[in-house]
Amino acid sequence: MFQLPKLSLPSSLEIYEPERIEKISTNISGMKGSVRDLYTIVPSSPGKYKIPKIEFSYFDLQSKKYKTISSSEINIDVDGDKWNNDSAKNINSKIKPKNISLEFLPFKTKSEFVKIKTKPFFNTNIFWGLFITPFIITIVIILVTNYLFGRNKFLKTDTSIHSKRLAKKYLLEAKSKLGNKKEFYESLDRALHNYLKSITLFDNSNYTKINIENELNKRKIDTDIINTLNQLFNNCEMARYTPITNVEMESDYTNAFDIISKIDKLIN
């Protein structure tokens, strides 16, 4: 429970925090033992040093009075050379007390200073790099997207032009086959299908009758035109199994030509 007195030394002596050594036992009669502070003191240069006396006050239970005891002054003569970096190599062995496992690093005689105020992060190369990078990435994404969209649009346009050319080719071929039922309706059927592919841009998996009708309705094509178109497809199918006259073939050719012309006017 006692607060041991602190050791006060001249500034020329280096003193370290003491190591507390306690030997206390507790039994039925109370507590007894000792408490000791072990100091390590290092002189910086040779000479004569004085450790002043230390006083300690306590209350004596037998005499029921306060008493003060004090130690004697201790004079120490220190030999050797003045402290330098070479002597620091053996500091651990010189200041290591008996039976106490204390280790000390060599004393530094030179200081290494570090700037407290460093260059701020703002307006540095890293700051501007991190600031500009998202904008560059966004611009690259926009350019790539536009390129892919334009390329896809170009491919679709190219496919549409090719299909229209085929439609005109097969329509002219059908006209030249008037009188030959089989070849006429095969050419007419190919002409109509290629024309519809040119305006709907459906691939083979989506090219169905329902999808074609839905696409024509979206483009606000008249119902009469859609019905006439379906009738032409039916005639192309029925021509394989029923007799068809030249008059009927000429009528179907005229209807096909008119339908293609009307749809072109409505969507362009």
Give me the secondary-structure topology.
Blueprint lengths: L12 E3 L3 E9 L2 E9 L2 E3 L3 E5 L3 E6 L4 E6 L3 E5 L12 H5 L29 H52 L4 H20 L8 H10 L4 H16 L7 H22 L1
Antiparallel strand pairs: 1-4, 2-3, 5-8, 6-7
Helix pairs in contact: 2-3, 3-5, 3-6, 5-6
Would you kindly provide a written description of the structure presented here, covering whatever features stand out?
The mean pLDDT is 77. The protein has a two-stranded antiparallel ribbon with strand order 1-4. It has a two-stranded antiparallel ribbon with strand order 2-3. Strand 6 and strand 7 form a beta hairpin. It has helices at residues 91-95, 125-176, 181-200, 209-218, 223-238, 246-267, and strands spanning 13-15, 19-27, 30-38, 41-43, 47-51, 55-60, 65-70, 74-78. The chain is built from six helices and eight strands; from the N terminus they run ββββββββαααααα. Helix 2 (125-176) runs antiparallel to helix 3, helix 3 (181-200) packs antiparallel against helix 5 (223-238) and helix 5 runs antiparallel to helix 6 (246-267). The two termini are 104 Å apart. The longest helix is centred in the middle third of the chain and has 52 residues, at 125-176. It folds into two domains: 1-134, no CATH class; 156-267, Four Helix Bundle (Hemerythrin (Met), subunit A), CATH 1.20.120. With 268 residues, it is α+β, with helices and mostly antiparallel strands.
